[in-house]
Amino acid sequence: MRAVVDIRPSQRREVQPPPRRGFIVDELGHILTSDHRLGDATLYEVTLSDGRTLGATVVARDRLNGIAVLRLARRGAPAIPLGESAALAVGDRVLAISSETGADRTPAAATVLATGAGTGGNLAIDLTPMPEGVGGPLLNHLGAAIGILIESAPSAASQRRMTYAVPIDRVKALLRNARPRPMADLLGVPEGR
Asked: What global pTM score does this model have?
């Protein structure tokens, strides 16, 4: 998963928190991640799958859904396409980067347990990611992102823990607003004139 990255605040501390996971979603270098425990910094260091570290800035936050959008200082990194979370149904198989796979970023299979009812509008899957897996992508069978992993918690209906993900359809507007708009859009002039 070359588009999956690790994110840390740029400010050095005595005790460095574990990295948050995120994933690049376009050629402009926009990264989606969980905002939980990301901190209030605006500058971050992003470690790519090849070990390179690039700077990134926060360009949007959605505190209600717990999602942040960062932008890399450089364009052209590999990206994960966005899918349609509305197409998911209970019982569908999905892929997530979890505690079962370690640091190699290999996806592990999971099953969709809920698509919104009783989960605050979030997706629920039968997988528990490591803490640094939070913020990573939930993928459909085509490899498109259909959710952002946000937390694991005990299920009210059973003894097992479930992982929750914000459906990607809920964050597409946030991502659109974070992207730079063409000058014609800013001026209210149709393109091509």
From this structure: 0.85
